[in-house]
Amino acid sequence: MLTESEYYMAWLVYTLAAFGILAVVWRILGIVSVGLARRLTVGILFAIVLTPWSVSDELARLAPALFVGVFDATLQRDGAMFRAFFPLSISSLVVGLLIGAEHLLNKKRC
Q1: pLDDT category, 110, cuts 50, 70, 90?
Q2: With left for phi above 0 and alpha for psi between -120 and 50, is residue 59 left, alpha or beta?
Q3: Which of 7, 30, 78, 87 has the highest Cβ tally under 10 A?
């Protein structure tokens, strides 16, 4: 089990690495794709990578929902994987809707 400071350090390292990977994906998609597809792809990837979820019912600690879902899918039984994949789908849907609404508002303004 991690101590409190190790827990915060792990989240800091994970968040910095996630932002680094997202910056690289943003640059690569800037060369390849158009604006909306680029923003939508990076936004949904951002939501998937950084959505937190509780590790277990007993602990009050959070972990990336992607890892919690993969852990539950491989090591738990009785459909436990849906416990973390539900917030992932909701956060991805919300990000997609927000980016789509922003695109429509900018399109009307021009």
Answers
A1: low
A2: beta
A3: 87
Segment 69-79, tens digit of pLDDT:
888 888 877 76
Q: Which residues pair with 54 in a beta bridge?
A: 62
Q: Domain residues of the chain, as ranges?
A: 4-109
Which residues 6+ apart lie within 8 Å of 50 measured at CB? 15, 18, 64
Nearest to 25 by CA among 10, 46, 11: 46
Task: Return phi, psi of residue 53, to 5°.
Answer: -155, 155
Structure tokens at 71: 């852990």
